[in-house]
Amino acid sequence: MSDKTTWRMRALGVAAGVGVTALVLAGCSTTPPATEETGNTADAAVTIAEVNEFTGTNSNSDNGNLDINGKVNYLTRAGFYYVSDTYEVVPDESFGKMEIVSEDPLQVKYTLNDGLEWSDGEPITTDDLIFGWAATSGVFDDATLDPETGEPTSGTKYFAYAGSTEGVKTSTIKDVADDKLSLTLEYDTPFVDWNIIGLIDQPVHVVAEKAGVDQAELIDTILTSPRGDAAAPAPVNETLKAAADFWNSGFDMTSLPDDPSLYLSSGPWIIDSWEPTQSMTLKLNDKYTGDLKPQFSEMVIRFIGDAQAQVTALQNGEVDVIAPQASGDTLTALQAIDGVEVLQGDALNYDHLDLTFAGPFAEKNVREAFLKTIPRQQLVDTLIKPVNPEAEVLNSNLFIPAQKPYKDAVAANGSDAYADVDIEGAKELLAGATPTIRLMYNINNPNRVAAFEAIQASASQAGFVIEDVGREDWSAQLGSDIYDAVIFGWISPGVGNGTIPQIFASFGGSNFNKYANDTVDEIARTIPQTLDTDKIDEMTIEADTELFSDAYGLPLFQGPGLEAHTDRVSGITFMGNQTGVFWNFWEWTVAG
């Protein structure tokens, strides 16, 4: 199932955490219900420890683009495909079909199966797909954004979508069937990632009601309104604006709302209860008719940020599955527990240091000086090598070492300027200045705390004054003016080509530091229309080079993946991307 219209990079609260999209199964047989012969039990609960606290049911929005929110959506939303542990896009024909019906122009037809319902009994129709397209395509935006603040100086930005709209925003909806079960998306240009545009997002009947607009009027507005044009902004479309305003923040929450329409499900699971900071319980959704049939009746997600606390909970039988932040101590502790299977692999996440392009870092020489003080090798040696002895400093913002273009990127991108700590070089660039740098990070993440302390100690030798602005709600502050530099992580879905448009383009939904580079922007616009993978690699290396040239920040290290589960649960396999341990929950079996 997938409530995502595109798979995007997700912000991580931990170096080894995982994020999520929604999930769907197709093209595979379902596992039979538990029976006495199999020794499994359908009337059972599985408890999983997660690091981050849930913050809302819209993981597509700027506010909600956090790994744990996406995981819950993965469990509670249905869609046209899912991504396997080999990073293949697998269609789920128990939800519907998504197929190319024309290559020139590119046309993709979406056909929903008849009888699909949201958990409140309302049908899932093309109205939901049309709204999902509007919310995540950026097609109606006509705003010109202030490069310093990111706020519109003219025109209107409607939906605060966290992902990239490049490619999708050239599309048009056509041929909506009278039975509301099929439509066609036509693109003006080729689009390399057409197969991960799932369209299904939030239930449109809920958005319309909460926004105070008529659903039919909203759909008609979406289908008949012209595309936005920043060169000739139109008056605000009040119907669309009302829906967007609710979508942007109406699904954010700090506790389970009294109104169940704010957490509807179309997938196999539905949120049943939530004790903030403690746990969330999901139960089976009796309206779900797809192939993704869990073999147990209850899933409990416990929010345990500390890795050792997760290990202790596993050892004590309080949880069945954990995915803690990987460290040598954690791995050693897990390997000493009887009846526990430890899973390791390469995660698709990386930690990085980003600099804002304002305040003290408005000056390039100050950015360069600060980056020369970052003890990246020390961080790898102390935090990562105890888990992965082969770990190296990450020297690309856009590739990881397992990807073929990584070596070519490193040879070309200029990362060697920051290969070693260079305090004298930093002092020379500062020329006696002692800038104060406010450094933000997650205070509940031991790796981030250690990184902050190491950076503070090193940078102070060059004359920097490092102010500690670490906090629990770091993700909510991304893009704000309370910090000058930030340490956090991105995790990739393993499919798609949206990273540059999403994070590094001046118009990107996750460009938190207001970075702007004309070359990178042009690459961000061109990649979605490029079908030649070699050319995509070439452009990506060029963008990587621009980032280092501009002293954007520094990649630190790729996080190692670590999961563990008791022998009570079987069928769990390692997955290094956003879905993490949850990716194949329908294959899990539980011992009686």
Describe the protein in words.
- The protein has 592 residues and is an alpha+beta fold.
- It is 26% helix and 20% strand.
- The protein has helices at 67-76, 126-137, 204-211, 215-224, 238-249, 307-315, 328-335, 364-372, 376-384, 406-412, 423-430, 446-460, 474-477, 499-504, 518-526, 533-549; strands at 10-12, 45-50, 81-83, 89-91, 96-103, 106-112, 144-145, 152-154, 171-174, 182-187, 269-275, 279-284, 298-303, 321-322, 340-355, 436-440, 465-468, 485-491, 553-566, 569-570, 589-590.
- The strands form 5 sheets. Strands 1, 2, 11, 12, 13, 14, 15, 16, 17, 18 and 19 form an 11-stranded mixed beta sheet that branches.
- A hairpin with a 5-residue loop joins strand 3 (81-83) and strand 4.
- The longest helix is centred in the C-terminal third of the chain and has 17 residues, at 533-549.
- The radius of gyration is 23 Å and the shape is globular.
